[in-house]
Amino acid sequence: MIKAVNIHKSFGELEVLKGVDLTVAKGEIVSIVGPSGAGKTTLLQILGTLDKPNAGEVLVNGVDFSKLNEKELAAFRNRHIGFIFQFHQLLPEFTALENVMIPALIARKDNKKTAQKAKELLAYLQLADRMEHKPSELSGGEKQRVAVARALINDPSLILADEPSGSLDSKNKDELHKLLFELRDKFGLTVVIVTHDKDLAALSDRVIEMKDGLVLLTAI
């Protein structure tokens, strides 16, 4: 599913990634762990086409990102990759349902079919009675489940999650962790998670440890 080879990334004189190699198999849930400043989020952003490496190559589903222009990268990202962030990134002026629909509408999918699918996803995530609520009317756990539904709306093959449970209490953390594995099995997803949460990392199929811009080890 993912192959990254000799990834380097610098911001000015600050070298953040120093030659990272990474492979992730289809259907795997992988956690990337390490101290703050290790380069975890930068690597995740490069895997998700949100940033470009200074050197190295990234392939997702056999597609070489270096061969795509900005428009093609945006289209690939929208259609094939779902994102879950620590702070849900919901648009406050829109309802839960509208927030979920946004990526599909950007992809110019049929409005009626998109609304129906968004409703089904929200119902599956136990938010059937919260669809017309705006983010300010939702709990932290509910907001993150809306964000999960939004990540799924375009039927991605890959989910990239950056500290997805970092802002949640213990109960909602546990529920979100279980949900990620349930969704993997239900939708055949590949999931890469950047996390400081040891419990979440322990549940993963594989843990990749980073430090100082390098992969130290990979553990099962």
Automatic annotation (TrEMBL):
Can you supply a Gene Ontology BP term from the record?
lipoprotein localization to outer membrane
Per the record, the domain of life is Bacteria
Q: Tell me a Gene Ontology molecular-function term this record carries.
A: ATP binding
Entry's SMART domains?
Answer: AAA
> Is Lyase found in the keyword set?
no
Task: Provide the family line.
Answer: Belongs to the ABC transporter superfamily.
Q: What is this protein called?
A: ABC transporter related protein
Name the species this protein comes from.
Answer: Paludibacter propionicigenes (strain DSM 17365 / JCM 13257 / WB4)
